[in-house]
Amino acid sequence: MDEFKVVILAAGEGTRMKSSLPKVLHKAAGKSLLGWVAEVAKAVSQKPVVVYGSGAETIPDTFGNAFTYARQEKRLGTGHAVMMAKEEIKDSVYTVVLAGDMPLIREETVRALCETIKTAGPGCGCALLTASPAVTPAFGRVVRDGAGKVCGIVEDKDAAPEEKEIKELNLSIYCFKTSALLEAIQTLRPENAQHEYYLTDCVKILYERGYTVESLSLPDMQEAIGVNTRAQLAQAEAALRRRINEALLLSGVSMIDPAATYIDAGVTVGPDTLLYPGVILQGDTKIGSGCTLYQGSRLVDTCIADGTTVENSVLIGAVVGRQTKIGPYTYLRPETVIGDRCRVGDFVEMKNAKIGNDTKVSHLTYVGDAVLGSEVNLGCGVVFANFDGQEKYISTVGDKAFIGCNTNLISPVRVGKGAYIAAGTTITKDIPPDALVIGRVKEVVKPGWAKGRYRANK
Ligand code: UD1
Ligand code: CA
Fold this sequence. Notes:
Number of strands: 39
Low-confidence stretches: none
Distance between the termini: 97 Å
Strand content: 25-35%
Bound molecules: uridine-diphosphate-N-acetylglucosamine, calcium ion
Shape: elongated
Helix content: 10-25%
Mean pLDDT: 96
Largest sheet: 14 strands, parallel
Structural class: alpha/beta
C-alpha cells in the first residue's frame, strides 16, 4: 500500500489559451506545464495518476509509464476528475491533488502539506494549501466556523457578497485522507453556478462528517499561479526562468543581465562561465566551466567543454571541445563534433562534421559530411560538395593539410596528411599525403583590352 498517491488534474479545456494544443502541454522554460507538475508529483509518490481529457490523447505517450492515466471523458468538474482516478488511488493512505496548470508549485510545499495531514492524525480528512494575498483574485474562498476551523470552500461564482470579503483563498492543492475522500466524493452534486462536481465541496462534506480540515498557508502566492491565459503563461515562464537563473548564479555562473538570459530547465552550466544578454540555452545543453557565451547565441542539445567561447551563433546538436572559439555567425548543425583549441569563424556552416584539435575553419565555409584531422587549415570559402542531388558522401582531410581559399571538394574524396591545396582548386579525386595540388583555369591576360571600355563609359 502506498502511503501517498498524487493525482494531477489535467483535463481542463484551456479555452482561454485559444490554442489547438492542450493547455497543459504548453511549455514554460522548455518544459510543459504538466511536465513541471509531473516532476514534483514523481518526487512525492510512485506512479502519479494523470487525469487527462479529450483532445489530449498524446499525454500518455508523452509522459510514459512513470505515470498511470485516467481519462475524463466529459469535463464535469474537479470533483468528477478525481472520481475518474478512483481505482488508482484507492490503495493509498493519502491522496495528494495537484493541478496540471500550476507549474510553479514546489516539492517542498507539497511535502509540507503531506506532513500537515500526517501530524494532524487519523481524524483529519484533508489538508489544503491557502494564501491570503493583498489583492484577491477570483479563487475559491476558505470558510471557517466560529472556532476558526476550516468548514468549507465557496467558489467565487457562488460566493455571497460577505463571502467574497474573505481573504483566505483555496489554491487547489490538497492532501486528503484517501478513505475519507472516496466517501465524500460519492456524495458530490453539481448544484452550483457552474453545474459542476466541485472537489472543493468535499471540504464541507468532510467537516460535516466529523473530520478536521487543516490548512497550510503560503506566504507567497506566486507558487500557485495557475496558467489559464497566454499572459499567465508568460508570467509563469518568467518566474521559472528566474528560478533557474538564480540557482545557476548561486552555483558560480555569471550573467550580465539574468532577466535577458534564457535557460531551459535541465540545462547545465559550469562555474566561472559568463553569459551575455540574449543567450538562449535549450534542450539537453551542457556548458562547461570558464566559457564565455556572448550575445545572441542559441544552443540547442549542445555540449560545450571548458574555456570555449561562442558569439552570435546557432549550435544545434553539436559537441565542442575545450578552449575553442566559435563565431561570430557560425551555424553548427546536428552531428558536428569539434575538437579542442579550434577556431570556427564567421559564416561557417557545419553538419555531420568531425573536426580534430587545433584546426581552423575561419570564414565563409561549408563543411558537410566530413572528417577533418588536427591542425588542418581551411581557407576562406571552402565548400564540401557533399550532395549530388540524390546521395550524401563523406570526405576526409588528414592532419596538417592546408586547403586554400575557394576550394571545392567534390565528395567523396580523401585528402592525405599534410597535403597542400592551392586556392581556387576543385578536388575530384583522392590526394596523397604531402602533395601540392593546383587545379585552376589558366588565366589569360590581354594587355590594354579593357581600355576602350572605360573610355566608352566616360
Ligand atoms: C479551482 C478551485 C478553486 C481554486 C482554484 C485555484 C474547484 C471547483 N475550484 O477553480 O477553489 O481557488 O482552482 O486555481 O476545484 N480540471 C479537470 N477536469 C475538469 C475540470 C478541471 O481535470 O472537469 C482540472 C483543470 O485542468 C485544472 C484544475 O482541474 O488543472 C482546476 O480546474 P479549473 O477549472 O481551472 O478550476 P478553477 O475554476 O480555477
Ligand atoms: Ca484554474
